[in-house]
Specification:
Elements lengths: L1 H24 L2 H5 L20 E7 L26 E5 L16 E7 L2 E11 L5 E5 L1 H7 L7 E10 L7 E3 L3
Parallel strand pairs: 1-5, 2-4
Antiparallel strand pairs: 1-6, 2-5, 3-4, 3-6, 4-7
Length: 174
């Protein structure tokens, strides 16, 4: 009985000792989410892992609807998914986003433009059209341009996010 009680006390003490370390090491995500699970915009300020890049965003979908589902593998090894919150970063920006590469954990970025914000998973790279810094997949582009009529969103700000626990999707009220 004494042994079980001391083991329980020891376990509780270890939990209390480790919790602050675990909380400090956990991504800003846990702190950045409201009770509904949505990311609170005010908590993203300290989450950047590098300076923001400003440029134009366009859409890519190697297989338009009707041809076949999915498509080729992305640079991270995942299959292209037009319904995910994902994007391809310009190849020469790869290092600024933690080296998007095959088999590596996905990288995340905050994309801001047209009065909207969204967290995307950066899982691909590419030689984008000159002047463009990011290619959004179809779902993400529809967030900024629901009719897909614009083709390009100018003055988009892309900020790499630190950590790997982000949940991609819209930020704030959209």
């Amino acid at each position: 009985m004494v042994f079980r009680l001391s083991a329980a006390i020891c376990g509780a003490a270890m939990t209390l000792a480790i919790s602050p370390v675990a909380m400090a090491r956990s991504d800003t995500v846990a702190l950045a989410r409201s009770d509904s699970g949505a990311v609170r915009p005010d908590t993203l300020d300290g989450a950047a892992s590098g300076p923001a890049i400003v440029g134009a965003a366009s859409m890519y979908n190697p297989f338009r609807p009707g041809y076949r589902e999915g498509g080729p593998n992305t640079a991270s090894g995942e299959r292209y998914d037009p319904s995910a919150w994902a994007a391809a970063i310009k190849t020469d920006l790869r290092k600024k986003f933690g080296g998007v590469q095959y088999g590596a954990r996905p990288k995340y970025a905050l994309v801001e433009g047209a009065g909207k914000k969204v967290i995307v998973k950066i899982n691909d790279v590419g030689p984008l059209t000159p002047g463009r810094i990011i290619d959004l997949n179809e779902r993400t582009m529809r967030h900024f341009d629901p009719s897909l009529q614009l083709g390009v969103i100018a003055n988009v700000k892309v900020t790499p996010l630190s950590g790997d626990g982000w949940t991609p999707g819209p930020i704030g009220s959209t």
